[in-house]
Amino acid sequence: MAVVALGAHILDVLARPVEAIPAGQDTVVVDRIRVTAAGAAAGTAVALARLGNEVVSVGAIGDDDLGDLLVAILTRNGVDATGLVRRTGDQTSASILPIRPDGGRPSFHVPGANLTLTPAAVDPGLLAAADVVHLGGPDVTFGLNDPAFFEALAAARAGGTAVTMDLLSNLPDLVAAAGAFLPYVDHVLPNEEQAAIMTGEDDPEKAALALLERGPRTAVVTVGAAGSVMATDGAVRRIPAIDVNVVDTTGCGDAYCAGFITGLVRGEDVHESARWGTAAAATVAQGLGSDAGLTDLPAILALLD
């Protein structure tokens, strides 16, 4: 089952636990430091591959050491990284994440080459050949907000490709602008804050229904420990979260999307697919980084038994 993960590619450096940034040149010893592929496209691509999907990553990264490392991580996890373009004038997008003991994750971030992604870097034939195209972070790859790209998405959908979308930031201007993609999306999966910005509705159920009016067939709004709210065919259902010991929330949204997409390509309905997404997110929350704990599909489905 082929999935194209298109959009934001970020290299994350995570340290845990970090209670405070030390003063001066003091050193704090932490339990663990990891480097992972992250971002709403790259993080989802790795999770998809771990769950048994054939995945191609499409995006823009720098022609630098960070980019080399990101490609190596993607490739090692079974993701086809040949869809990535290398930019000599921009660095690879990266984040440093000091993870608090309670799982909170402040960040230091460089947007980098993600801001340079345009329709010229995207092969329309690749979109048309995919079972699913996942738009990961179109709010930060806003060069794709272009009629040429929308035409390519429309053509792919007409040929049977499903399009899913998740956002990366909570910056109001960027999130609101990403609403232009909604008419070309089948399933949209924002978090509660993003859904509120896009619709003006603070209530997740109302926000999910409002998103349906803008084009998608399904809207899934994630609400953290409260689980998620799914609207489809004008009806709303709540999917409860799975009670786990939360270590780090980095990548939970990416994992949710990966589980959801995996359900779709295996013929599950959207409600069962959302349950698969819930299980994937719960798995990742128990470890450090956007791919923590993800081994294979049977392991996450065991959480639903």
From TrEMBL:
<protein>
    <submittedName>
        <fullName>Carbohydrate kinase family protein</fullName>
        <ecNumber>2.7.1.-</ecNumber>
    </submittedName>
</protein>
<keyword id="KW-0808">Transferase</keyword>
<keyword id="KW-0418">Kinase</keyword>
<dbReference type="GO" id="GO:0016301">
    <property type="term" value="F:kinase activity"/>
</dbReference>
<feature type="domain" description="Carbohydrate kinase PfkB">
    <location>
        <begin position="4"/>
        <end position="293"/>
    </location>
</feature>
<dbReference type="InterPro" id="IPR029056">
    <property type="entry name" value="Ribokinase-like"/>
</dbReference>
<dbReference type="Pfam" id="PF00294">
    <property type="entry name" value="PfkB"/>
</dbReference>
<dbReference type="InterPro" id="IPR002139">
    <property type="entry name" value="Ribo/fructo_kinase"/>
</dbReference>
<dbReference type="InterPro" id="IPR011611">
    <property type="entry name" value="PfkB_dom"/>
</dbReference>
